[in-house]
Design goal:
Blueprint: H1 20-25, E1 28-30, E2 33-36, H2 64-73
Antiparallel strand pairs: 1-2
Length: about 80
């Protein structure tokens, strides 16, 4: 059963100001037609450099009771 949440206004004051560089990389569309596609990301140019702190994907097998314990703690 879902719980009703009170209507809360959306606060946009915490959004960062757009820089000229962000506008230069943003997609421009008029009436749903793309005039200029986006180039790169809007946060910074390029990917972060990979170093010793780069994340690595691993595969891990756990007992079912351990998995159930993790699932009981938090969703996902």
């Amino acid at each position: 059963m879902s719980e009703e949440k009170p209507d809360t206004p959306i606060e946009w004051d915490d959004a960062p100001e757009w820089s000229d560089e962000m506008f230069d990389r943003a997609e421009i569309s008029v009436g749903g037609k793309v005039i200029r596609p986006a180039t790169g990301t809007l946060t910074r140019a390029g990917r972060s450099p990979l170093g010793t702190a780069a994340k690595q994907q691993v595969t891990l097998q756990l007992d079912p009771d351990v998995v159930e314990k993790f699932r009981a703690d938090k969703p996902g």
